[in-house]
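Module 6 notes. Inverse folding takes a fixed backbone as the condition and produces residue identities as the prediction. Think of it as a translation problem where the source language is geometry and the target language is the twenty amino acids. Below is one complete input and output pair. Work through it position by position during the lab.
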């Protein structure tokens, strides 16, 4: 059985990598950190049915990549046999999360390991059943009895599912996915290949698990030398193997006599070490046989340990307990590699490399992110530790690697595991020479344009306007739903460094690492500390799944500053607001309750706008607000649009498209009958109201006070005089945002939307408008269908709003850039606007508002170097 281990560290500074154990075709994934999905192809990960996930703890560090991955699997009609194991609270967390992700959680079965392992697994109550069949999952949507029980009580939900599918399970294959089936008498996970022993190493404040993986003892192979000495004729070998013995010249030869010496079964330890308490607990753990015996041998330990704990006396004791042949793998990115061969790898990621080449041309607009990545250092003496210096007694048995995956390959058990570096994708992303000549040519054009009156006037105007408030705008993520190598999910940072004012607009998964790449560690911490407001425009996962990690890292940044004695920050200094729609309240609740304490102040768009829950009821009961009343014939055509996520049967396509968006009203057109459509809307409304009533305040006076506090905060901390949240045309509860600084500067951001008149009105005279431009002009119909805008629709809105500058963002992965070439059917006026005022965003594009006038030209230049499809890279 081919077994190998893949350790995926997608980012510098990542403390908890994703660890994939491949045993034959079976995959076991230990933790799943941010951007797992984004770099899946890059890391050559092929997901299959029946994956088992194991979480060491519940934290943004360990599971931020899991949720988008669950959604992706669901949309490919996979994940039906997947099981998710972890600390005790795991089950309650997902039970609560189902109210947000509802149907997408249904295939999965969850089980929280007991702190005191039970003698009999039948008594186990800490689990959730999953359903093994897509049609049944969609059927449950219309099952009132189920959805009523579902949100209240996991035992009821389990019992109901069991009753409902018991009969089908008897007739056909198993309709239920049950994580308990894999739990053995000892309370450990066990299948034909491995046994996974959960070890609680810390359970006071936070449940932390280590995992000991025990492999099967391999059958011994025949030893050629021994075989030779017996001189057995080839034709008798079959008989020999079958009967385990043979008679040759009147002498009995037993099979054992020609076999290799038996090897002990191998074990792998995955140790997520948060504190010294964890070390003390694991030293005393009886499940681990530290000394090699005939039966077992710990061949590798993966250490996820902060350096100050690595340096402790207890850690030395812990390491010394192992056999000298045990391999120690340190996945702490602050440890210097010492034992890995230096050849055959490149130092940085391709997207970092590419951005870097661009940075050399336009250092101001693309700060050198590689410098931050390559010379990743901290002032702290703890960092960049040589392993040999740290553990002289473990010399030659330790490995650390930062920034890329390691594959440990063992062709057969019993053989030492040889670390090999995985081969990088060697395709060239950019031809530097071609790029340089192209860039230089465009630079010449730029200089020429700078002499034009149009340019000079605009430049003078914007410099004048930004005299008192001149923030930098950083594009941290510019992709539509599916991130690509070059574009991460949506996030924009508006940052005034000298005033210590930071505002983040949307925060897709992986935003923290984009920030880290952009600024480097030390500055990133400062930026985080100065971040005062995060706006999450709507409840689509590509716009909000990164916020918990940002908030978590922000708390850490204050802690670090405090530890280093830099400054004491008051509670007021640490205060941050999150502005969000009601629909995100349950998700915030789950994160705050199970992952990390958020300690943020919340302001809901609807509360701010003076809506109440009844408005929401009414919203769901009236006809969906569509700017495109679609005709029957058009409907048919729309159904034929290929959905990039799905390749299965049409029925699944239909169902998945509507469930892929958290708010299903978008794909209303997919329903066969009015009745079905109504059913769906009622279902959505019911779920939403049920969720929200748990989280929202209904006291109007209190809400009024919240609004006043928020306004005051904006004025004092950010110099914002007025802020508006405008309902836009996308999914229910989607908003655009417009704010005006006391200096008069006005900035507007559309979020995701069809062209929206109300937004244009509120954004009138914006100094900068950031608008989504998901599609090129030739995909207008698709834009209508998916409730997004084309680049030209966005431009029309900007012109209508008399915006001074427009940046287009949120690009579909169907194309790597927007086509903004001159169109003869456009008016001269419009073409001029496009030329001087419109730019398209790229990840890590940065500019100071006063210098915007050069951005359209630089953006054009940079994008001209991109092929049309990301796949061409
Ligand atoms: Zn989006
Ligand atoms: Zn969206």
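Target side of the pair, the amino acids:
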């Amino acid at each position: 059985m081919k077994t190998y281990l893949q350790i995926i560290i997608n980012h510098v500074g990542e403390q908890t990598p994703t660890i994939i154990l491949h045993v034959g075709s079976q995959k076991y994934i230990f933790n799943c950190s941010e951007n797992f999905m984004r770099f899946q192809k890059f890391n050559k990960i092929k997901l299959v049915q029946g994956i088992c996930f194991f979480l060491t703890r519940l934290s943004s560090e360990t599971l931020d990549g899991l949720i988008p991955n669950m959604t992706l699997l669901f949309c490919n009609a996979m994940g039906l046999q997947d099981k998710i194991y972890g600390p005790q609270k795991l089950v309650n967390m997902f039970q609560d999360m189902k109210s947000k992700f509802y149907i997408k959680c249904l295939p999965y079965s969850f089980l929280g390991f007991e702190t005191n392992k039970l003698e009999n697994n039948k008594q186990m109550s800490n689990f959730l059943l999953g359903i093994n069949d897509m049609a049944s999952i969609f059927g449950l949507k219309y099952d009132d009895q189920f959805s009523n029980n579902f949100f209240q009580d996991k035992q009821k939900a389990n019992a109901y599912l069991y009753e409902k599918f018991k009969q089908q399970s008897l007739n056909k294959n198993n309709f239920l996915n049950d994580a308990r089936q894999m739990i053995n008498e000892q309370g450990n996970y066990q299948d034909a290949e491995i046994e996974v022993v959960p070890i609680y190493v810390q359970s006071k404040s936070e449940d932390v698990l280590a995992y000991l993986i025990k492999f099967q003892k391999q059958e011994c192979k025949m030893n050629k030398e021994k075989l030779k000495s017996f001189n057995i004729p080839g034709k008798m070998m079959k008989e020999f193997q079958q009967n385990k013995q043979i008679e040759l010249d009147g002498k009995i030869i037993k099979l054992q006599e020609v076999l290799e010496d038996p090897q002990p079964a191998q074990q792998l330890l995955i140790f997520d070490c948060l504190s010294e308490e964890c070390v003390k607990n694991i030293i005393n753990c009886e499940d681990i046989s530290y000394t090699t015996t005939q039966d077992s041998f710990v061949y590798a330990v993966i250490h996820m340990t902060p350096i100050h704990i690595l340096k402790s006396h207890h850690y030395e004791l812990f390491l010394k307990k192992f056999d000298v042949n045990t391999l120690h793998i340190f996945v702490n990115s602050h440890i210097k590699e010492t034992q890995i061969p230096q050849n055959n790898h490149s130092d940085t990621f391709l997207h970092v490399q590419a951005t870097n080449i661009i940075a050399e041309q336009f250092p101001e607009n693309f700060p050198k992110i590689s410098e931050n990545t390559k010379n990743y250092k901290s002032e702290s003496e703890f960092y960049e530790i040589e392993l040999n210096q740290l553990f002289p007694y473990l010399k030659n048995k330790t490995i650390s690697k930062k920034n890329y995956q390691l594959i440990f390959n063992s062709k057969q058990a019993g053989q030492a595991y040889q670390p090999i570096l995985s081969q990088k994708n060697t395709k060239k992303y950019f031809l530097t020479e071609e790029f340089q000549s192209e860039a230089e040519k465009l630079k010449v054009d730029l200089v020429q344009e700078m002499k034009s009156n149009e340019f000079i006037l605009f430049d003078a105007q914007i410099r004048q306007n930004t005299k008192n408030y001149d923030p930098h705008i950083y594009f941290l993520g510019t992709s539509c739903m599916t991130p690509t190598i070059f574009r991460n999910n949506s996030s924009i940072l508006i940052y005034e460094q000298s005033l210590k004012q930071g505002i983040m607009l949307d925060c897709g998964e992986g935003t923290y690492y984009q920030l880290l790449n952009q600024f480097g560690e030390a500055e990133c911490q400062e930026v985080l500390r100065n971040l005062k407001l995060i706006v999450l425009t709507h409840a689509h996962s590509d716009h909000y799944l990164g916020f918990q990690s940002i908030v978590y890292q922000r708390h850490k940044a204050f802690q670090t500053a405090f530890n280093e004695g830099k400054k004491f920050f008051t509670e007021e200094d640490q205060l941050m607001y999150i502005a969000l729609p009601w629909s995100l309240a349950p998700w915030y609740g789950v994160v705050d309750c199970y992952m990390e304490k958020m300690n943020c102040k919340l302001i809901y768009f609807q509360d701010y706008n003076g809506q109440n829950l009844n408005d929401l009821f009414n919203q769901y009961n009236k006809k969906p607000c569509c700017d495109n009343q679609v005709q029957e014939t058009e409907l048919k055509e729309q159904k034929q649009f290929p959905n990039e996520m799905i390749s299965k049967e049409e029925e699944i396509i239909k169902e998945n498209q509507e469930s892929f968006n958290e708010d299903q009203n978008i794909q209303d057109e997919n329903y066969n009958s009015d009745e079905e459509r109504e059913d769906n809307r009622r279902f959505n409304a019911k779920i939403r109201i049920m969720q929200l009533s748990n989280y929202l305040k209904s006291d109007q006076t209190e809400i009024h006070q919240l609004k006043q506090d928020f306004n005051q905060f904006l004025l004092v901390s950010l110099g914002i005089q007025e802020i508006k949240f405008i309902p836009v045309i996308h999914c229910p509860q989607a908003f655009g945002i417009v704010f005006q600084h006391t200096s008069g500067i006005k900035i507007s951001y559309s979020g995701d939307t069809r062209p929206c008149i109300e937004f244009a009105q509120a954004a009138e005279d914006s100094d900068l408008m950031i608008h989504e431009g998901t599609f090129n002009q030739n995909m207008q119909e698709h834009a209508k269908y998916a409730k997004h805008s084309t680049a030209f629709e966005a431009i029309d809105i900007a012109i209508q709003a008399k915006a001074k500058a427009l940046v287009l963002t949120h690009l579909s992965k169907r194309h790597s850039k927007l086509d903004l070439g001159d169109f003869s059917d456009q008016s001269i006026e419009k073409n001029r606007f496009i030329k001087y005022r419109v730019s398209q965003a790229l990840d890590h594009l940065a500019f100071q508002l006063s210098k915007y006038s050069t951005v359209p030209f630089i953006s054009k230049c940079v994008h001209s170097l991109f092929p049309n499809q990301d796949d061409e890279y």
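Reference fact for the lab report: Confidence is low (pLDDT under 50) at residues 338-349, 372-384, 400-429, 623-671.
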